[in-house]
Write a structure and sequence with these properties.
globular; ligase; 195 residues; disordered N terminus; 2'-5' RNA ligase family protein; 4-stranded antiparallel sheet; Cyclic Phosphodiesterase, Chain: A; Cyclic_Pdiesterase; alpha+beta
């Protein structure tokens, strides 16, 4: 069990000026992700009860200070996508040590990412750090005493779990200040709210 930030933690070694993320919240695993995050990155636990600590990223970092037309574009993208069900059962580990769940099917998440990136080509997923983008829900990071098998054991009967993607959140990520800036229902109205 870690009690200090991992070396890969966003809170280690730099000043965090914050950034936006477009994400699909996963309420079914929010408590688990919060429990893991508190062990090594407590500054990134949101006090905002609507914030999807557990989420699948659509696009991030996104526009730091979105204009009304940027928000309207995301509202249109969300409204054009129907809500969908997906299964979270399979875990994986990225080369950088991030332990994650892989949604099945991944295609609806990939479509949301493609549409958002097409609309905002200056904002590639993960700032272009990775050659390919795999939809995922981050659970933890490999470290002393923490590996994929350990995290699967901790998940226990929480997986497999069937979830429903029904909205896109605009999240603000900054140490001590994580919160929801807006949200749009999939297949719904094009005005944003805060949930």
């Amino acid at each position: 069990m870690r009690t200090t930030p991992s070396p890969d933690s966003p809170s280690v070694g730099h000043v965090d000026h914050g950034h936006t993320v477009l994400a699909v919240p996963v309420p079914a695993l929010d408590d688990f992700v919060r429990q893991r995050t508190v062990l090594y990155d407590e500054a990134y636990l949101a006090e905002d009860p609507h914030f999807g600590q557990a989420h699948v990223t659509v696009l991030g970092p996104w526009v730091r200070e979105p204009r009304a037309e940027d928000l309207a574009m995301i509202a249109r993208i969300a409204a054009a996508a129907e809500p969908f069900d997906y299964l979270l059962a399979a875990t994986g580990v990225f080369p950088n040590g991030i332990i994650h769940l892989v949604p099945d099917p991944a295609a609806p998440f990939q479509a949301l990412t493609k549409q958002a990136w097409d609309a905002f080509p200056d904002h590639p997923p993960y700032a272009g750090a990775f050659a390919g983008v795999t939809p995922h829900l981050t659970l933890d990071a490999v470290g002393p005493g923490v590996d994929e098998a350990h995290v699967r054991d901790l998940l226990g009967d929480r997986i497999p779990v069937t979830c429903r993607a029904d909205r896109v959140q605009l999240q603000w990520w900054q140490a001590g200040h994580c919160h929801v800036k807006g949200a749009w229902p999939l297949g719904g109205a094009t005005t944003g709210d805060r949930s």
